[in-house]
């Protein structure tokens, strides 16, 4: 015990000393105005000093007892409202060394702050108020705490009994003031020495026990005090302290409440839980519903159940698992967690509501935000509904719960996991997940295509921007609903810091999310959020509406008090009123004026002024970029921040309506497909239709009657004719169905036949055995997803023309399998429904190249119109004379009259000034639009505004494949009236449909344009054009816009075909009824179904090339090395490529790449010694007593040198990866007589520092021992856990890649290879690089930071050597960065690596070859073109 003089500074100093003491148990009780008793358990002295002359005020004594007991019970956060009657309590709390106090003049805000603290800390805060209405102001928070099971201790000062009902000031009846909303109430007597002081302690202990026991909630202790309230002396009898000796000498509470909790092991597994388990295991269509979960331990338990159960998981926004940040590959997550984040919007569809019936429902955690989800659960009744919650409340508003389990989530999950769950993803579950994917895509598209900052977009931005170590607090009304409906379920975790230790083994981390959903009011939200921040000790991002913000502006006074908490960011969505009422049925039932005044409660209050008045930082944002910047800035600073997002009730209402309509349509389309597939026995549980048996391609060359307008046709130098070249793809399904596609690249778009054929050869190998997903025809990101997840290829690495042909072939194959047309597949119709192809037709626009006099061009145009073309597109800007072009247009319009649509296409050939001049000359010619009038795409909008002419985009969108909706944002201008879409240039049907949809929703025409394809390509485009017309009609109907006339599409290139790839060419002609040129879907379907290739145009046909596998023996130093060899390509080809794999790899790693470039090179890969099927045997002749082979760099290089001599008489080119790259570099430097070029993929010349080499040797030797001791499986798991493989782990085929690493015949020799070929043992090659004469291509992955740096250092070292020798500047060496890949670039993005290798090792032979003496003299050689 220590006694401090209160009058002096010594008391305060003593308090500070105790606060700074480490691990001390301490308390402080005021015994007199100048004497207090403090106990520090680090101090073993026990001294008490009381002044008999200065006895303490009895009020102060009781108040000190109350505060001290609170401290001992762990209640150390006090919220104090100002007032006279509560002075003893306030002074006692403020004087206590272990108590943290905060004050606010508004009791309501203060009480909400207290429940926020309870949310964050799971411990009660203490609220102290004066008497009278100050107590009544606590009621809203008390109700919220009661409904949400939040512990809270209310200490309300009161007048003594003799002043009740006697007209005394501020005296109201405070007994049972909060009625049933508190778990415990006790009104203390006024402090007196006639009652033992220990009664105060036991009362407080009982109250806190009630507050913290299930069901948790608020407790109320009424504390009357008689005057004097100040610390004036008043005599009292020390006998009232009797029985407190033990309490005064300890640091524990007076009464200990002990709970005997049952162990999870003792749960009645064979009783009621046995029944529950039987229900769960017998479920056919079960759902796991995660309600509000506020404990991180329970979120963890919910995650474990989600991982082990094969049910769809609907996570409420307050569950903690609705907003997830991925830490690994999405494929790993998708295969183990079946989250359905957008069930609410899927339920907008009547069809889905009728189809979706669960037979078993497990709900963990209380309350579900979505009203539609709650209604769906009710509609599932009768079913087995298992409700799990720690508190005994019903949580059953629909009265459908059949099994109510009062248990923590932790205990319940522990019980379930003991029994285990079978992992079987049913077709029903797969269907629901596919529907969810469609809704997610639709929501994302609509939000992205709406370039105003909408409130749903705010929800998305917040979910993406929130750091993993922050928590989210959501206000009621629209903010919580918008986040629940529209936030991204998955986002990438970009934080560089490590995740929480609890989550180290998780594929994702969660976001702790909270809100006041007990009574769901809009009051006190800001104050609660600040309290939540204090309680959880984390950064809090709070999202509220403007009315909620105004309702709790006094909370700004609390926010402004910077206590020991982390910063709070408040996002206020200000739409000047209560927007939720515009989304409710009442909107259509009352007058607008009444709605605005009495429901919206519109206002014009300046939130900025309120923030300034409270000294808080305020940011005002209007755009997505501004919001992202504001959120980033707020996370980087240590200050509280208010971000005001400007919104509009009308715009918000309209956009929510758009979202509902389009998502409902999307899910209806999806269900139309999936519900039928659900009943097909041949469809697998993952909703895969079937497998691809094989794919072939045919190179064709068709004659044209004239040169193309794009100058992409070839010229036959002998016959002086014009030709179009390309490939016809034939894709065969396992049931024999055939799908045709066309790949005809345009060289003006940076593609050529050689590039394309290399990709096709690669894809022929990859496509074999691939499963076709039933979601592909949806064209809503489904193709891209399938390409990445099923094929393991990054979609953007595929050339646009190749992707277009592949999509066409796959869609046609699905149509063939279903016995319907391609249009029916796109429209999600089956054969038993109305056949769209029989009646669907597409208008065709005639194409005319300007040449000759204006009169001559006009006569040709007139001829086209007489043939039946309803529209004419005229190519201009060809002659370099704007006046001529204008004259041609004027003459053509004069000749055709005003009934014919006239378009002109400048192909970006004009300067801005020329385009403006042209526009001024043709402004009265009634052009439907002018295509690409200016060279600079950034000047297009300016041209629209200055010229007034309608504009169409063509080349501008050709290069847009990544996120086209974002890129198109700058072209939303109404002067841009059309988007011209070339599917083979924009990258296929899916991208075409996406761009077309964007255009149609913004009121623009979507015009499909051919690029001089054959009849196969044109047939596909006819189906696509008709599909887009039907899509436009649906969009306009949903948006309540009048139907638009059909569009004449740019398919007039059929007139250029002198011959076609099929013996029965496509027939496009004049419709006898309409009199115009139209393309029939039925005719296009006929060509695709009865296709017979025209052998006269076939150059050659290609099927997958076979791999030759054999073994070669190489002897060295008393050992025979039997090397496994794989070979692809012509053996007569003198361009030989030798591929060397990395550690743990085999020669099989290179098959995909080898097949791709085998047409231009002889490709050989091997299993390096110690790897794969290569083996080593000791010769009969013993060499110097050597018992085991060496796999050192020198030995392996000599082996390869001998092997190369056996395989090829001349030089070979090396391709090495990682360990193989180090070998390749070593050989390029030391065996230059046999190495022509070397491609180094993720390779290093070694370690410069001797100590670093020594450390690495030790590490690799240790790893080798572990490999020998524990086997390959555990070694692989540990090896690929490193940071170097982070990108590879995110690859969808990661599991297959790792499985291939386990195929090694001799693990002992594999371990020796690891040790002998350690980078710590190999000679460092940095100095030798200065003399490097062998051309090197250093290939690195975009995400491989370490080896990108090494690559630059290699090039710098080579360059240094060149400068020293004063060699001429010759570009022998290069660095190539492979996008979308990390260390294993050849596995992660093979198509990009193929292109890089081809350019460096193959096509370079057609350009420059250099003398071996590196003299700088250049000899030019020529090779014939591929054809």
Automatic annotation (TrEMBL):
GO terms for biological process: amino acid catabolic process; menaquinone biosynthetic process. Residues 854-950 form the Mandelate racemase/muconate lactonizing enzyme C-terminal domain. The keyword Disulfide bond does not apply. The keyword Kinase does not apply. InterPro entries: AB_hydrolase_1, AB_hydrolase_fold, DHS-like_NAD/FAD-binding_dom, Enolase-like_C_sf, Enolase-like_N, Enolase_C-like, Mandel_Rmase/mucon_lact_enz_CS, Mandelate_racemase_C. GO terms for molecular function: 2-succinyl-5-enolpyruvyl-6-hydroxy-3-cyclohexene-1-carboxylic-acid synthase activity; lyase activity; metal ion binding; thiamine pyrophosphate binding. It comes from the Eukaryota. Keywords: Lyase, Magnesium, Manganese, Metal-binding, Thiamine pyrophosphate, Transferase. It holds the Pfam family MR_MLE_C. This is Protein PHYLLO, chloroplastic isoform X5. It comes from Cucurbita moschata (Winter crookneck squash). The lineage of its organism: Eukaryota, Viridiplantae, Streptophyta, Embryophyta, Tracheophyta.
């Amino acid at each position: 015990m220590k006694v401090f003089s209160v009058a002096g500074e010594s008391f305060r100093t003593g308090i500070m000393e105790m606060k700074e003491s480490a691990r001390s148990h301490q308390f402080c009780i005021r015994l007199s105005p100048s004497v207090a008793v403090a106990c520090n358990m680090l101090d073993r002295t026990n001294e008490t000093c009381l002044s008999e002359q200065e006895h303490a005020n009895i009020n102060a004594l009781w108040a000190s007892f109350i505060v001290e007991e609170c401290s001992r019970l762990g209640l150390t956060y006090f919220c104090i409202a100002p007032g006279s009657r509560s002075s003893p309590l306030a002074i006692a709390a403020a004087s206590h060394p272990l108590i943290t106090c905060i004050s606010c003049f508004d009791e309501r805000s203060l009480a909400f702050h207290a429940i926020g603290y309870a949310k964050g800390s799971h411990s009660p805060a203490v609220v102290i108020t004066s008497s009278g209405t100050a107590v009544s102001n606590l009621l809203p928070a008390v109700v919220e705490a009661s409904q949400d099971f939040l512990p809270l201790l209310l200490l309300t000062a009161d007048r003594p009994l003799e002043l009740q009902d006697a007209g005394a000031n501020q005296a109201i009846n405070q007994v049972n003031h909060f009625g049933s909303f508190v778990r415990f109430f006790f009104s203390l007597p006024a402090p007196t020495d006639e009652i033992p002081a220990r009664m105060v302690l036991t009362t407080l202990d009982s109250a806190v026990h009630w507050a913290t026991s299930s069901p948790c909630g608020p407790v109320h202790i009424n504390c009357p005090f008689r005057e004097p309230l100040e610390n004036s002396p008043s005599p009292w009898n020390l006998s009232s302290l009797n029985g407190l000796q033990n309490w005064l000498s300890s640091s524990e509470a007076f009464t200990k409440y002990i709970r005997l909790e049952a162990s999870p092991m003792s749960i009645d597994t064979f009783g009621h839980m046995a029944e529950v388990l039987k229900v769960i295991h017998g479920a056919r269509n079960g759902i796991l519903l995660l309600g509000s979960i506020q404990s991180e331990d329970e979120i963890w338990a919910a995650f474990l159940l989600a991982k082990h159960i094969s049910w769809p998981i609907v996570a409420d926004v307050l569950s903690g698992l609705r907003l997830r940040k991925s830490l690994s590959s999405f494929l790993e997550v998708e295969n183990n967690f079946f989250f359905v984040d957008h069930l609410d919007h899927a339920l907008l569809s009547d069809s889905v509501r009728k189809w979706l019936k669960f037979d078993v429902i497990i709900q963990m955690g209380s309350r579900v935000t979505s009203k539609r989800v709650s209604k769906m659960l009710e509609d599932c009744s009768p079913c087995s509904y298992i409700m799990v919650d720690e508190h005994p409340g019903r949580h059953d508003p629909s009265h459908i719960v059949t099994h109510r389990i009062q248990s923590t989530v932790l205990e319940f999950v522990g019980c379930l996991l003991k029994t285990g769950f079978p992992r079987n993803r049913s077709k029903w579950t797969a269907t629901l997940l596919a529907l969810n994917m469609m809704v997610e895509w639709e929501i994302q598209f609509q939000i992205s295509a709406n370039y105003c900052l909408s409130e749903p977009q705010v929800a998305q931005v917040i979910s993406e921007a929130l750091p993993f170590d922050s928590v989210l607090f959501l206000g009621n009304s629209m903010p919580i609903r918008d986040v629940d409906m529209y936030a991204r379920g998955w986002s990438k975790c970009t934080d560089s810091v490590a995740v929480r230790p609890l989550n180290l083994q998780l594929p994702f981390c969660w976001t702790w999310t909270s809100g006041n959903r007990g009574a769901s009011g809009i009051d006190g939200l800001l104050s609660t959020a600040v309290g939540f921040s204090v309680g959880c000790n984390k950064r809090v991002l709070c999202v509220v509406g403007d009315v909620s913000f105004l309702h709790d502006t006094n909370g700004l006074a609390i926010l402004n008090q910077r206590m020991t908490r982390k910063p709070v960011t408040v996002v206020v969505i200000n739409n000047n009123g209560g927007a939720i009422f515009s989304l409710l049925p009442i909107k259509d039932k009352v007058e607008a004026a009444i709605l605005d005044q009495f429901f919206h409660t519109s206002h014009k209050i300046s939130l900025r002024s309120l923030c300034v008045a409270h000294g808080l930082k305020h940011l005002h944002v209007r755009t997505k970029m501004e919001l992202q910047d504001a959120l980033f800035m707020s996370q980087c600073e240590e200050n509280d921040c208010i971000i005001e997002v400007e919104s509009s009730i009308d715009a918000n209402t309209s956009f929510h309506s758009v979202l509902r309509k389009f998502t409902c349509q999307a899910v209806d389309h999806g269900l139309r497909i999936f519900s039928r597939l659900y009943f097909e026995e041949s469809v697998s549980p993952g909703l895969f239709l079937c497998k691809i048996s094989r794919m072939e391609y045919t190179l064709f060359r068709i004659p044209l009657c004239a040169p193309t307008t794009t100058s992409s046709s070839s010229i036959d130098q002998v016959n002086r004719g014009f030709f179009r070249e390309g490939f016809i793809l034939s894709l065969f399904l396992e049931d024999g169905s055939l799908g045709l596609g066309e790949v005809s690249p345009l060289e003006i778009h940076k593609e050529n036949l050689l590039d394309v054929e290399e990709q096709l050869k690669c894809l022929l190998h990859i496509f074999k055995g691939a499963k076709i997903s039933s979601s592909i025809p949806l064209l809503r990101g489904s193709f891209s997803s399938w390409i990445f997840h099923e094929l393991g290829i990054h979609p953007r690495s595929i050339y646009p023309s190749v992707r277009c042909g592949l999509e066409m072939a796959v869609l046609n194959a699905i149509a063939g399998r279903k016995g319907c047309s391609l249009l029916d597949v796109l429209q999600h119709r089956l054969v038993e429904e109305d056949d769209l192809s029989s009646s669907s037709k597409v208008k065709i626009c005639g194409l005319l190249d300007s040449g000759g006099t204006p009169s001559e061009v006009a006569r040709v145009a007139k001829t086209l119109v007489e043939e039946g073309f309803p529209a004419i597109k005229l190519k201009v800007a060809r002659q370099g004379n704007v006046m001529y072009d204008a004259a041609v247009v004027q003459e053509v319009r004069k000749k055709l009259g005003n009934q014919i649509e006239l378009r002109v296409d400048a192909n970006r050939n004009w300067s801005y000034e020329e385009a403006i001049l042209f526009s001024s000359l043709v402004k009265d010619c009634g052009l439907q639009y002018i295509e690409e009038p200016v060279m600079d795409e950034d000047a297009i909008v300016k041209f629209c505004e200055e010229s007034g002419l309608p504009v169409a985009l063509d080349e501008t969108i050709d290069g847009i494949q990544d996120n086209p909706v974002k890129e198109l944002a700058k072209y939303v201008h109404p002067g841009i009236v059309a988007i011209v879409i070339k599917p083979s240039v924009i990258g296929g049907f899916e991208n075409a449909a996406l761009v077309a949809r964007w255009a149609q929703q913004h009121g623009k025409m979507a015009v499909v344009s051919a690029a001089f394809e054959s009849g196969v390509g044109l047939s596909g485009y006819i189906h696509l054009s008709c599909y887009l017309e039907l899509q436009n009609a649906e969009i306009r109907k949903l948006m309540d816009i009048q139907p638009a006339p059909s569009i004449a599409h740019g398919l007039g290139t059929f007139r250029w075909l002198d011959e076609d790839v099929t013996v029965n060419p496509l027939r496009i002609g004049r419709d006898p009824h309409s009199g115009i040129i139209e393309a029939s879907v039925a005719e296009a379907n006929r060509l695709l179904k009865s296709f017979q290739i025209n052998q006269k145009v076939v150059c050659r046909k290609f099927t997958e090339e076979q791999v030759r596998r054999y073994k070669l023996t190489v002897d060295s130093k008393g050992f025979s090395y039997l090397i496994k060899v794989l070979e692809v390509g012509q053996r007569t080809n003198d361009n030989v490529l030798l591929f060397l794999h990395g550690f743990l790899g085999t020669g099989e790693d290179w098959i995909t790449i080898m097949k791709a470039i085998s047409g231009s090179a002889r490709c050989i890969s091997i299993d390096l010694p110690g790897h794969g099927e290569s083996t080593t045997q000791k010769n009969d002749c013993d060499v110097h007593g050597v018992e085991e082979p060496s796999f050192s760099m020198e030995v392996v290089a000599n082996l390869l040198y001998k092997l190369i001599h056996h395989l090829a008489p001349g030089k070979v080119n090396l391709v090495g990866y990682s360990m193989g790259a180090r070998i390749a570099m070593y050989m390029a430097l030391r065996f230059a007589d046999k190495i022509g070029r070397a491609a180094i993929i993720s390779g290093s010349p070694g370690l410069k520092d001797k100590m670093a080499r020594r450390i690495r040797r030790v590490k690799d030797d240790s790893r080798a021992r572990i490999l020998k001791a524990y086997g390959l499986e555990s070694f692989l798991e540990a090896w690929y856990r490193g940071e170097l493989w982070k990108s590879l782990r995110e690859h969808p085929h990661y599991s297959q890649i790792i499985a291939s690493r386990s195929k090694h015949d001799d693990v002992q020799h594999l371990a020796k290879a690891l040790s002998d070929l350690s980078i710590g043992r190999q000679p460092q090659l940095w100095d030798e690089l200065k003399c490097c004469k062998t051309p090197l291509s250093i290939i690195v992955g975009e995400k491989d930071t370490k080896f990108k740096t090494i690559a630059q250092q290699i090039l710098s070292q080579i360059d240094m050597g060149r400068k020293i020798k004063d060699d001429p500047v010759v570009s022998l060496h290069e660095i190539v960065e492979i996008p979308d890949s990390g260390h294993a670039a050849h596995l992660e993005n093979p198509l990009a690596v193929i292109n890089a290798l081809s350019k460096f090792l193959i096509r370079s032979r057609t350009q420059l070859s250099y003398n071996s003496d590196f003299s700088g003299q250049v000899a030019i050689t020529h090779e014939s073109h591929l054809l």
